[in-house]
Specification:
Elements lengths: L8 E4 L8 H12 L22 H11 L14 H10 L3 E6 L8 H13 L1 H6 L1 E2 L10 E4 L13 E5 L11 E2 L5 H14 L2
Parallel strand pairs: 1-2, 1-4, 2-3, 4-5, 5-6
Helix pairs in contact: 1-2
The structure holds magnesium ion.
The site of magnesium ion (MG) has 7 residues, from loops.
């Protein structure tokens, strides 16, 4: 994976990329608010959580997402932990790069704990928690967010992790973690040739 003698840096998002956010959210909300219907995980049309929600839906959603410990309880997305371990083994500089849910008092610490538990201390130390990923330096950002914007001009190429709400957008994507190696090889080669 090394190009021009430089180790590539790959930034990897957490929610619905490494961690099964939607599964845990939908099951928690159905358990807490069984009378309020909500789309199945994977069926959400919009990245924005609150699109089309009533006030009652919105309040129920915030109750679930603001629950201390919510972000520590997420299950790993199949193949994600193994993919990151294989990237590290292949000499790639990997850093988890994630945005906090600001109104949950334990979100940031839960995210660090999740990385430490599932990926180990080194990756926990290199994890970046920020509301503006455009400021983070890397070659690739793997993220499910349809457009990742902020104050800076990003140095990374966005590789979308396919979810229902981003499925129609053009550009490099990983549909599931089994594809990471081919997609990254292509994107990193393209960056070298494009210089
Ligand atoms: Mg995400």
């Amino acid at each position: 994976m090394e190009k021009e003698g430089r180790v590539p840096t790959v930034l990897v998002d957490m929610d619905d990329v490494l961690c099964g956010w939607a599964d845990h959210f939908v099951s928690s909300r159905r358990r807490r608010f069984p009378h309020l219907p909500i789309a199945d995980p994977g069926g959400r049309e919009s990245f924005d959580l609150f699109t089309g929600f009533s006030e009652e839906d919105r309040a129920a959603t915030l109750t679930v997402l603001d629950e201390p410990g919510f972000f520590a309880a997420l299950k790993p997305v199949p193949g994600g932990v193994e993919a990151v371990e294989r990237m590290v083994g292949a000499g790639i500089d990997v850093a988890v790069c994630t945005s906090p849910w600001m109104s949950n008092p334990t979100c940031a610490s839960d995210k660090l704990r999740w990385v430490e538990e599932h990926l180990g201390a080194d990756l926990s130390h290199s994890t970046v928690i920020t509301r503006d990923k455009t400021r983070v330096v890397g070659d690739v950002l793997i993220d499910d967010k349809p457009e990742v914007t902020g104050r800076a001009r990003p140095r990374w190429s966005l590789v979308r992790f396919t979810r229902h709400y981003n499925r129609l957008l053009a550009g490099p994507r990983i549909d599931d973690w089994s594809q990471w190696e081919d997609v990254l090889a292509r994107v990193l080669l393209h960056r070298v040739e494009g210089r």
